[in-house]
Amino acid sequence: MPKIRVTIVTTLAVLFSASTVLATLVTPDSIYRKVDGFGVGNCVFSSTPMPFKKESEYDVKKAFSSSDRPAEIRCYFGRLVGEHTTKGSFYNSLRDENEYYNYLTIEEPNGGDTFYSRLGAYHPDGKSINWDQMRMGLQPGGAINCNFDDHEATGTDGCMDIDKQVMALAAKKGASLPYTADVCISYYYKWTNEYEEVWDSHRNAYKRQRTHVSPQYMAGPNCIQYTVEGSGPAVAPVRARD
User: Strand (E) positions, 54-137?
Assistant: First the structure.
């Protein structure tokens, strides 16, 4: 049984270097950006490509199907990436590890179990620390990288096939077609104000370890409904991912 000192709640915030962060949004006039009272932004799905600052070309919807698939996602942050570094006086993954995350899931409708999830980690540089949004491709073989690496990321690898994933979920549940599932996306970093001091027998001293780590959303979670079309019992695809 390790010796643990009383959990300490710290109050001193360590600020990210202000010289690396812009003070205003890059796209404050976005017609799709929705920021809630907690400063959390949102994500939207489009059946057409979503080039940067060309929102009139987006075809944003909340429901898609096998014959009308989402092509891309764009997520809008309430603040610049680098302005999310002050929360968490003991630990903030963006400030302390230069890391934040996106989380894509396919879930049963109406708050059911998560069938598929994909977690991505991102490490901003001097340019991307000043971004206020991210873009993701969803079509296998499409023009936009599925790893959310840039406003205008290029590449063709890594996109999952939503149709196959939802079909696999329907087959697992023994459902018939058509079948509808929720596809959800979010961005977040990890933070905590608390740590505990645990005895390290190898060093013969106490060491600090963070505790009560929580996610802080930057955008989302936002979901769409996706319907696999057809009739009869759902049959699991040979491969649920391209």
Answer: 60-61, 63-65, 72-76, 91-92, 100-107, 114-122, 133-137
Rounded Cα distance between 78 and 200, Å, is 41
42-46 sheet: strands from edge to edge: 60-61, 42-46, 72-76, 133-137
Backbone phi, then psi, for 218, in 5-degree steps? -100, -35
pLDDT digits (tens, 9 = 90+) for 127-143: 888 889 988 887 665 55
What whole-number distance in Å separates Cα of residue 212 and Cα of residue 175?
39
Exposure string over 144-161, b if 16+ CB within 10 A, otherwise e: bbbbbbbbebeeeeebbb
Distance CA 102, CA 123 (A): 12
| Residue whose C-alpha is closest to residue 78's, from 219, 207, 198 | 219
Residues 101 and 119 sit within 8 Å (Cβ to Cβ) = yes
pLDDT tens digits for range 159-192: 677 888 899 999 999 999 999 999 999 999 999 9
What is the per-residue DSSP string for 91-103? Answer: EEHHHHHS-EEEE
The residue with tokens 């939207």 is 44
Nearest to 187, CA basis, from 221, 163, 214, 157: 221
How many angstroms separate the CA atoms of 130 and 26, rounded?
8
Phi, psi of 12 (to 5 degrees): -90, 120
Q: What is the pLDDT of residues 8-33, one digit of tens each?
A: 454 333 333 333 334 467 777 789 99
What is the C-alpha to C-alpha distance for residues 224 and 228, in angstroms, rounded to an integer? 13
CA gap 210, 75 in Å, rounded: 29
